[in-house]
Amino acid sequence: MKIGLAGIMVDNQDKARDFYTRVLGFTVKNDIPMGQFRWLTVISPEGADDIELVLEPIGFPPAHAYQTALYEAGIPATAFLTHDIAGEYASLKEKGVAFRGEPTPMGPIIGVLFEDTCGNLINLVQPG
């Protein structure tokens, strides 16, 4: 058994596609119309191409409440790994990404939260 799909709720799939590809540098793997929404997945050019991040539309009110509660509590929806957090932080900041602080050592990792423009906080992490 392995993980092939992981999902993140987004408040707007078009905005999410733009942010996750243009800003973060991910590549669209699937963008298939499914009624009023789409099956939209991205992959990382630095990762395995069989692990996809599903950009899930929020079409269910409790899901929106959950996403909002996480965001307001400062809890990340997911984490992305990097081997150069200082370089990644500088590059993303230059592209206009809103960070919640600066990379900070946290036990065995260095981490910093950023906003994905789609209602989520993402933890950018450099393992120790």
UniProtKB/TrEMBL annotation:
Keywords: Dioxygenase, Oxidoreductase. Gene3D superfamilies: 2,3-Dihydroxybiphenyl 1,2-Dioxygenase, domain 1. Pfam families: Glyoxalase. Transmembrane segments: none annotated. GO terms for molecular function: dioxygenase activity. SUPFAM superfamilies: Glyoxalase/Bleomycin resistance protein/Dihydroxybiphenyl dioxygenase. Residues 2-127 form the VOC domain. This is Catechol 2,3-dioxygenase.
